[in-house]
Automatic annotation (TrEMBL), chains A, B:
Belongs to the peptidase M24B family. Its cofactor is Mn(2+). GO terms for molecular function: aminopeptidase activity; metal ion binding; metalloexopeptidase activity; proline dipeptidase activity. This is Xaa-Pro aminopeptidase.
Length: 365, 365
């Protein structure tokens, strides 16, 4: 944390930003080690180009913040107090009148921005995102260690998932069983609600599990991930329950080829757009282009969707230490849905795949 | 939905707002019936004082949006398209040049606000929150029916929770077992991650379950809720595992008296501040004032934290149809944590308590 705070301080100073107000829970965690969801309450870590930072949080969470190891002032406020007034006082104590304040423009809402503007009427406000995203984009070894573990647990979750497939079971029952077994094994949190979809339900790329019952001939799509010490994994596998039709197999193999082609291309210098294009070409050539309706992937770390966005329009070149998903899919409405997703980390000359459950079509039952 | 959309239209017209852009998933659901978490993608329901509304969402979710029953245009955009450009075109098609645009200032972030400002350079932007919160504050019969069901499931969850208490079990195991049993019974989603805390762990009002093991003499705090057809419940019960000390009992009975006093006071005309004060007085008189570190409660509905805020500083009088939590607590750091929470709905002359698990101290094992 100390290193990350120092890096931020240097960048603030270089950009002539006297104060950086960090308000998204993920970024607060990244810099301070304190993870908290304050709901509608205010949580902010405030950094200075030449003073020590402070953390402001709901009074009842202050002891947890201190315990989390943040080595500077933790300032709690009660529900009847005005956190912005306290923040202003603490900022002025440390930095006097400030010319430029950095904020998270993609997190801070307009209401809070207007409060800040009237609290600091002579300050200009500039976005901090790029600075912070640049820091977060490249994972350090400690982060990679956690991402690897999160990936291993994702693989285990798919094994568990497959063990629970039997005729007549519902999507929700399988989803519940997966989360139950993981929690019994000490996993405190999933990256997002576990998705289990049977048959035509899988044709909706953001479908939710329901009381749909498994039957022979269904393809089954699992999309899930765990949070391991604050870091997320995200895996998708599609397996067959019983015999597959030729069409199901063709769709599956097309997705697999697209996914493997993109993974094989990963290395420093290749752009996100090129990766997306690589997978999209395979799917288009097979005639399923219109059914691949989303980008190839997204960055992964403390957040389940972070930089880089692996899309057709992102010309950002890959760099060593970037971690993201590679997840092409084909969705034929009312009929078939297949997606295969791995988490990868860019290395010196290629990539390390963090999720390793087999991708050859698994036929269950 | 139709009624709610009409009510919003009338209010927009009355306030001279030509266009209302609704972006928070909860409010989009409230008006359109379409529930979706678009993550960092753009989701907006756009309303007009004198045209039909439209919904704009990621392309891959458009079929789900149509299926959800929204009777007007659903406009999908691909990952490589600019949703703001589409939104601007659709707005201009329906309303020409607009003078005033309503936005959710407590939801919309600064980055998106700046995009909107440059897309509509001659428009003024006003907050829509009050208008929408006024509508959502008073629950209609259909909403109450769902909130009652959500409350019943919360009671059942506490019964399940208690069945899983045995010496040596961990907080996480109990939390996992609760969610598993509920999901097997068709509950798709919890209102928030289930909290189970043993002994001194419960002294942190926002603590997370961990691998702490249950032992005789512990107080056990459960805080959980389910989402039932889009509506949340939120219950807290504290039970004793084995014998209790005199101090534990005193703390428990103080919280119970405070909670019951506040519930008994609920009726139209009493203010939120008076309710909070009523419970706080009981706790202060017993000498535990400094250990009740949060407000008495919060509104409940589609959101787990919505209006009204039941705090010392909110002079809003209760009205029939308001639904909120009543949840005083006493937290003696490192030692004892007790909280008791019910969901209540204000009626003509009192309140209906939606959560009914007994509040007399339950001694388990």
């Amino acid at each position: 944390m100390q290193q990350r705070m120092e890096a931020l301080k240097r960048r603030l100073s270089r950009q002539g930003i006297q104060v950086g107000i960090v308000t998204s829970p993920d970024n607060v965690f990244y810099f301070t080690g304190f993870m908290s969801d304050p709901h509608e309450r205010v949580l902010a870590a405030v950094f200075f180009e030449d003073s020590d930072p402070f953390l402001i949080c709901p009074l009842m969470e202050a002891p947890d913040a201190v315990r989390s190891g943040f080595p500077h002032s933790v300032i709690g406020y009660g529900d009847a107090e005005d956190p912005w007034k306290k923040l202003k006082e603490e900022v002025e104590k440390r930095a006097g009148t400030v010319k430029r304040i950095g904020i998270e423009k993609s997190h801070l809402n307009v209401e809070r921005f207007e409060i800040l503007r009237s609290a600091f009427p002579s300050s200009g406000f500039v976005p901090l995102e790029e600075t912070i995203n640049e820091l977060r984009l490249i994972k350090d070894e400690r982060e990679l260690e956690r991402l690897r573990k999160a990936g291993e647990w994702a693989d285990r979750a798919i094994e568990i998932a497959i063990r629970h497939l039997k005729e007549g079971v519902t999507e929700l029952e399988v989803a519940a069983a997966i989360e139950y077994e993981l929690k019994r094994n000490g996993i405190e949190q999933m990256s997002f609600p576990t998705t289990v979809l049977f048959g035509a339900n899988a044709a909706s790329p953001h479908g939710n599990p329901g009381t749909n019952k498994l039957k022979k001939g269904d393809l089954v799509l699992f999309d899930l991930g765990v949070v391991y010490e604050g870091y997320c994994s995200d895996i998708t596998r599609t397996v067959a329950f019983g015999e597959v039709t030729e069409e199901q197999r063709t769709v599956y193999e097309t997705v697999r080829k697209a996914q493997e082609a993109a993974v094989a291309l990963c290395k420093p210098g290749i752009t996100c757009a090129e990766l997306d294009r690589e997978a999209r070409n395979v799917i288009e050539k097979a005639g399923f282009g219109p059914y691949f309706t989303h980008r190839l992937g997204h960055g992964l770390g403390i957040g389940i969707h972070e930089y880089p966005s692996v899309s057709e329009t992102n010309g950002m070149p890959l760099q060593k230490g970037m971690v993201f998903t590679v997840e092409p899919g084909i969705y034929i409405p009312g009929k078939i849905g297949v997606r295969i997703e791995d988490d990868v980390c860019v290395t010196e000359d290629g990539c390390e795949v963090l999720t390793r459950f087999p991708k050859t079509l698994q036929i269950i039952g």
